[in-house]
Amino acid sequence: MDAVRQEVRQMLDEYFKAVERRDLNGSLSCFAKGDDLTVFENADMYDWDGFVTFVEGFFQQVTEIAIALEQCVVNPVAETVAVATGIFRVTGRTTSGEGLAIRHGYTFVLLKRVDRWLIKHVHESMV
């Protein structure tokens, strides 16, 4: 199961780097597209279409993004299912010039499809 932990952690690093680049397609490619994707962002819940709209809006509101993983624990459930939990900090700058500082706790449920890990469920809350 160490290979699962390593693969999932690498995929999450790729995802967070895509977000830092404000790469819409790159960040969305880390998710399992479909009607059953669920994303909880604080008090809001999104399906695939709602999540795409949310990410587009977020990227339009920021000019700089840096993400630091404070904690990341990957728990393999099976060879093709894993749960990652932890805390990340987002800093940056908004389009209006204001500083951005967000700290979130997260839970990601990931599935391995063919040879790639994809995020199927997200729960993030400010901490």
- Write down the secondary-structure element order: HHEEHEEEE
Low-confidence stretches: none
The number of E-state strands comes to 6
Let me know the average pLDDT.
96
Radius of gyration, CA atoms, in whole angstroms: 14 Å
Helix content: 25-40%
Distance between the terminal alpha carbons, to the nearest Å?
A: 30 Å
Major beta sheet, specifics?
6 strands, mixed
What is the multimeric organization of the chains shown? single chain
| Structural class label | alpha+beta
Spatial sequence of strands, sheet with the most strands:
2-1-6-5-4-3
Strand content: over 45%
Q: Outline, from the CA principal axes?
A: globular
Question: How many alpha or pi helices?
Answer: 3
Brief rundown of the structure:
This protein has 127 residues and is an alpha+beta fold. Helices cover 30% and strands 50% of the residues.
Keywords:
six-stranded mixed β-sheet, 127 residues, 6 strands, globular, alpha+beta, single chain
Helix-strand layout with pairing:
Elements: H1 2-20, H2 24-28, E1 38-41, E2 44-46, H3 48-61, E3 62-78, E4 81-94, E5 99-113, E6 116-126
Parallel strand pairs: 1-6
Antiparallel strand pairs: 1-2, 3-4, 4-5, 5-6
